[in-house]
Amino acid sequence: MNTIDTKTVSDRRPLTFPDFNAVRRDLDALEAARTRGTVEASGNWTAGQIFAHLAAFMEYPFDGYPDELQHPPFFVRAMLRVFRKKFLESGMPAGVRIPRLAAGTTGADPMEFEDGLARLRKAMDRMERNAPFAANPAFGSLSHQQWIQLNCRHAELHLSFLHPPP
């Protein structure tokens, strides 16, 4: 399979999610659009994989991070902590790969649209109700609001690659 350099994808949707309710509205719109046709993805993942990936990163601080994410290289931790405020407020760049991971990240498990969507909604509900108790291995300790901000920025990035049918 040929992979797309997602840094170069130019047809991403511009998204801004101030809170999980805005993410939910976009998910509802994607779900409704799917009844009219296929939701296209302009990156390397299907909609189900995107939903699974977003859900996984919301689940990790509650259920434990995979071994490969437990100890990011020092330079990654230092850089992300310096830019933490920028990422929380302004978003995340496309095409970033986590060092030492063959796939560049984790959690993008093959998943059907409906299953991934249900998993993501459940993960958002959980994070909204409860502050994660584990620090983020790269960003460090975050307040409950910062966890939500981080996941809204993450959702803006990945959901921007999904395109509902006209």
Gist of the model:
This protein is mainly alpha-helical and 166 residues long.
Task: Walk me through this protein's architecture.
With 166 residues, the protein is mostly helical. The chain has one domain. The protein is 51% helix and 2% strand. The mean pLDDT is 90.
The quaternary structure here is single chain
Sheet/helix structural class:
mainly alpha
Strand residue percentage: under 5%
- Largest sheet, spatial ordering of strands: 1-2
Basic shape: globular
How many domains make up the 3D coordinates? 1
Tell how many strands the DSSP assignment holds: 2
Kindly report the average pLDDT value. Answer: 90
Count of alpha/pi helices: 7
Our measurement of the CA-to-CA distance between the termini, rounded to an integer number of angstroms, reads 27 Å
What is the gyration radius calculated from CA atoms? 15 Å
User: Largest sheet, if any?
Assistant: 2 strands, antiparallel
Contiguous low-pLDDT stretches (5 residues minimum) are none
Give helix % range: 40-55%
Could you spell the SSE succession in H and E letters? HEHHHHHHE
Features:
166 residues, globular, single chain, 51% helix, mainly alpha, two-stranded antiparallel sheet
Layout of SSEs?
Blueprint: H1 20-34, E1 40-41, H2 47-63, H3 67-70, H4 74-82, H5 84-90, H6 113-129, H7 144-159, E2 162-163
Antiparallel strand pairs: 1-2
Helix pairs in contact: 1-6, 2-6, 2-7, 5-7
